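Review this today:
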Amino acid sequence: MLSSNKLNFLWLILTVLVFFALVKLGFWQSSRALEKEQRLARIEQLKSQEPLSLRQVNLLAEKEDINDMPALVEGVFDKQTVFLLDNQVNKGRLGYRVYQVLVAEGGTVLVNLGWVKGSINRQNLPKISSLSGKHLIRGHVRLTEVGMQLQKQVFSDVKWPLRIQQVELDKLSILIDRQLLPFIIYLDRNEKIGFEKNWQPIVMPPEKHRAYAFQWISLAIVWVVLMVWAKLTVNKTGKKKSLLLKKRPK
């Protein structure tokens, strides 16, 4: 059996580790709230900026953050290459985000055309009227982040439109035999072409992050109070047992 000193030490270590883990989560949520506020302020500031051409965006990408920048791009849509990003929920309805390749003077870029409703039968993909010919589009630049994947995407049997689980620009570039630019153009809400434009630059607002931060910090305080109370209770119970044992007649 462990001695009393070792038990007290383990108790202290557990209390401190859990406390600091909860506090760290609280500060992380606070930092996320600050990042979101800064991005919202930047988006508001960019509204007054003249849209950039694809070539200008490419040049700026080498020296500054191009995320959320307005863009005005003229190019030809590749009618065949349409991608359907799976598991996209809109107002409780499951569907897809539609992406199509646009070939422009400044490079080949993937364009987010909007959201379409999916079928209950997973085998049935929505019927998409793909764009063709030359178009002048307004939109915003968005950098992509590949999330966690249960398994890697493998494109063995390619049929268009192609259902995908993640927007991995490097893999899609190999698939279409064209080098896609390292960002996506999201169509402006006022554009007539495309589908339902329901995207938001920020899914979780800063206020929600701060609420989560408050919860984590509160849990940290409650944890310490609970552990101190438990320790005092154990010590008190131990003292009572010791006194009872001393009072027993030999």
